[in-house]
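Lab meeting tomorrow. Please check the following:
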Amino acid sequence: MKLGVLKDIKKGEYRVILTPGEVSGIVEDGHEVLVEHDAGKSAGFPDEAYVEVGAAISTQDEIYNTCDMVVKVKEIEPSEYDKLRPGQIVYTCIHPAAHRQEVDALLAKKVTSFAAEDTHRHGSPNCEAAGKAGVLLGLHAMMTFNGGCGKFVSGLGTAPGIKVLILGCGIVGKAAIEVLQSMGAWVTVAATNIGHLRAISSKYDGKVNTIISNTYNIKNILPKVDMVVNCVRWDKSNTKFLITRDMVKTMHPGSVIVDISNDYGVIETFHETTLDDPIYIEEGVVHYCVSNIPSAIARTTSIAYAASVEKHIRSILNNGVAEACARDGFLRRGLVTYDGYLTHEETSQIQNRPWVQPEKILHLEGRKLDPAPKNTVAESNNFYPEFC
């Protein structure tokens, strides 16, 4: 097959999905690889490094026109919609439930698309990067010249360190805890899983406080903290804010909210920002709400992310879509569209569209398939009539 590695064109995006190391293995498998000019430059991988391992340097148009499969880090941008071809395979972060127009284009063009964010068996390296880099950027936002309260994370002699509330203790939350606790912050973690909270408390010898995440507890602690770090993946069908505007008003002036998850619905005062213009102040609180924080550490994240997605990309190239999905349940659950049909349950529920299970449209029923848990709590019985 012919693989195209695209340069990401989202504003403030510097990562590349494959480094020369992964491209080398794909070339050795017998596939032709085209890499868009300067696709890896900002992450520290020049065109010459890809040429040395057998890839050819190309343009975006040639890649879309000639490649069987195209891969990139972030969503397909509107300027790319018309370049998609029927039957083409796309592997990238899609976040389909939140991007209706993108899904429209994928369906209209009858491409086979995978949401990379749903395919990680051991969690995405982007999550770890977001948690670690996000809190560092939040500390920068707390600096006086950014409108912050001017507190230093660990404090100084006679001046105490900051108090932080972290919402969620998944991969993102654990990464945030690791950095902040090691730097001397007073950390409290709010989550709903008691087992996870016990594990956090044990890991840090009780030096990290833990509370159940509910409105009462969060409302009580907000006036006492200097920073809130949102690491919660929000159920998009939930219409109730976890932190309302009135709750934000109780935080002291110059405190900071870092919304790493970037999910609408968690914090009422949230709106997405970019690395070029990352900060805004609302209700006296500094907000840092960049959607692609991992891009701030593009080289490190690219290396880790490429290692994570390589097996999926090579499996699709070597085995074909159906067989690759049969062998890996996490890849299968990431299938978003196939031949003009939606195959993503959460998107069906949120956007009120019909869908079909990947197993059915790929004719895998009756086979022993690699299992995988559902990627969200979403449920939809809105099926295409022809697949009922």
Observations:
- The CA atoms of residues 249 and 283 lie 6 Å apart.
- The longest strand covers residues 186-191.
- The chain has a mean pLDDT of 96.
